[in-house]
Amino acid sequence: MPAPERLPATGVTETGELEELLAEGELTVVGRIREASNAVLLCTVTHDGVSVDCVYKPVKGERPLWDFPDGNLAQREVAAYLVSEATGWGLVPPTVLRDGPYGEGMVQQWIESAGPEGDAEGDSEGGPEGDTEGGTPAGALLALVEGEEAGEGWRPIAFAEVGEGRTALLVHADDPRLRRLSVLDAVINNGDRKGGHLLPAADGRLYGIDHGVTFHAEDKLRTLLWGWAGEPLTDEAREVLAALAAELAEGAPLATRLAELITEAELAAVRDRVAHLLRTGTHPQPSGQWPAIPWPPV
To answer: What domains, with CATH codes, occur in the chain?
Structure first.
């Protein structure tokens, strides 16, 4: 039997074909990502002679959280993917809900990171290590910089302890891909946008992963992408949000699918957040009622 064709991590098929492959293919577990707080299994999925690497998160491996119902983080990951696809930005890898070797779970295409994805460690004297542009790593999404100014091409997040009583400014790139992701996070109420959840791919696209802690009806937004807080949304973002509002209307296909994955109150909150963003026309700011930055941040 010939070996199955393996697709590159960035994908060469249409999204619908990838979804079918993830949903219908045979899952084979090849390892476990032990750094994750919940069970995360690295797998291959094969269907009709085509194979891709993927991540499988069985519901049975989810750690209970005090503020989210038990056993539905996988559904929230799928819901985040559906909303991402509705924006047209494609910021979340193809994700499905299906049965697997350890029961029902989320299965998502594996994305191989092609470069710096939020490594904010640097040397203590001369700023972050590596090739630099203006004192920050070339191509990086996050960095620590000396002084109180972010510098050209960067947005400030917060000051961070770097040891020996010293602090440095944590910054993120002033990157349109990150700006789109910040809007998506505001819509889905992402409570855990860490630096390690940012994956730049070889084709230049940026993906966000780990969306289990999303869609809460209360404000839970915790993110490193506060650099545009209070600033006007881009024209593109306003157009996307207006289209998304229509797709979230009762009876629309997206709303119907989301209703199968999150609660009625959570779906209503999504609609309210989109309406609020359109009404204010600005990026949200920290509420002050919830930690604004996830821990650990990277």
So the answer is: 5-109 (3.30.200), 122-173 (no CATH), 176-280 (no CATH)
